TrEMBL record:
<comment type="similarity">
    <text>Belongs to the purine nucleoside phosphorylase YfiH/LACC1 family.</text>
</comment>
<dbReference type="InterPro" id="IPR011324">
    <property type="entry name" value="Cytotoxic_necrot_fac-like_cat"/>
</dbReference>
<dbReference type="InterPro" id="IPR038371">
    <property type="entry name" value="Cu_polyphenol_OxRdtase_sf"/>
</dbReference>
<dbReference type="InterPro" id="IPR003730">
    <property type="entry name" value="Cu_polyphenol_OxRdtase"/>
</dbReference>
<keyword id="KW-0186">Copper</keyword>
<comment type="function">
    <text>Purine nucleoside enzyme that catalyzes the phosphorolysis of adenosine and inosine nucleosides, yielding D-ribose 1-phosphate and the respective free bases, adenine and hypoxanthine. Also catalyzes the phosphorolysis of S-methyl-5'-thioadenosine into adenine and S-methyl-5-thio-alpha-D-ribose 1-phosphate. Also has adenosine deaminase activity.</text>
</comment>
<keyword id="KW-0378">Hydrolase</keyword>
<dbReference type="GO" id="GO:0017061">
    <property type="term" value="F:S-methyl-5-thioadenosine phosphorylase activity"/>
</dbReference>
<dbReference type="GO" id="GO:0005507">
    <property type="term" value="F:copper ion binding"/>
</dbReference>
<keyword id="KW-0862">Zinc</keyword>
<dbReference type="Pfam" id="PF02578">
    <property type="entry name" value="Cu-oxidase_4"/>
</dbReference>
<dbReference type="GO" id="GO:0016787">
    <property type="term" value="F:hydrolase activity"/>
</dbReference>
<keyword id="KW-0479">Metal-binding</keyword>
<protein>
    <recommendedName>
        <fullName>Multi-copper polyphenol oxidoreductase laccase</fullName>
    </recommendedName>
</protein>
<keyword id="KW-0808">Transferase</keyword>
Amino acid sequence: MVGAVHAGRVGARVGVVVEALKAMMALGAELGRIEVLLGPSVCGECYEVPADMQKDVEKHLPGSASKTRRGTPGLDLRAGLWNQLASAGVGKIGVDPRCTFEEKDLFSHRREAPTGRLASVVWVES
């Protein structure tokens, strides 16, 4: 079984990753055997948000609050999602550390609004 989930700020806040885990387990996946890769995203040092938004997301996704390089409120969704997955009992969690804001080869809405494209490939080796 294989799956792919996009969890931006809103999706991560409302638990889309946990819901995907529940759906996989309902189809027979064993939580301890699930492997997850958290892909490139804007990092907590670059993702500036209003303080009230940071507090709201942190309330729903513990571990996601951060400070930007400028010392302003930020979000580190990867950190929050990693904590969520580890707390749920996911067997293996990998992280692609690239920041979409800093890496010019990756699209970032915060760097190049309004639109761009990223693609991910998910497969099962036989």
